[in-house]
Specification:
3 helices, 127 residues, four-stranded mixed β-sheet, Macrophage Migration Inhibitory Factor, 33% helix, alpha/beta
């Protein structure tokens, strides 16, 4: 772990390179020592039905959820949260300058007893 889920308003499709944002998140997370590279997953979901603030259809949002196996200290999680948030804010800055966009991020722990995992990615990673 971590798993990143980016939800974004559909009106950003032509304003933000979502594949690029996913890659920015992946690359940033890969540099954080507490995140095992084999466990990083980043995905984005377009949301077509939403209402924001005063209802102006020009408003958009990017909401990032990070699910993380429990066990890291609060300081480690806070540093990781800030690092990822700043990378996203920097990536989105040009679009945010031109369009009203809300950016949010939340990290939460997953109880490992209630979240079984398996996979072979680690077996296939190049050293």
């Amino acid at each position: 772990m971590p798993h990143f889920h980016v939800e974004y308003s559909g009106n950003l499709e032509d304003r933000v390179d979502m594949s690029g944002l996913c890659e920015r998140i992946r690359a940033t997370a890969a540099k954080i020592d507490t995140f095992p590279v084999a466990g990083i997953r980043v995905r984005a979901t377009r949301v077509d039905h939403y209402a924001i603030a005063d209802g102006n259809p020009a408003h958009g949002f990017v909401d990032i959820s990070i699910r993380l196996r429990a066990g890291r200290s609060g300081e480690v999680k806070q540093d990781a949260t800030q690092t990822i948030f700043e990378a996203c804010r920097e990536f989105l800055a040009p679009a945010m300058k031109e369009h009203p966009i809300a950016l949010s991020l939340e990290m939460r722990d997953i109880n490992p007893d209630l979240s079984p995992k398996t996979g072979t990615i680690r077996d296939h990673l190049r050293s």
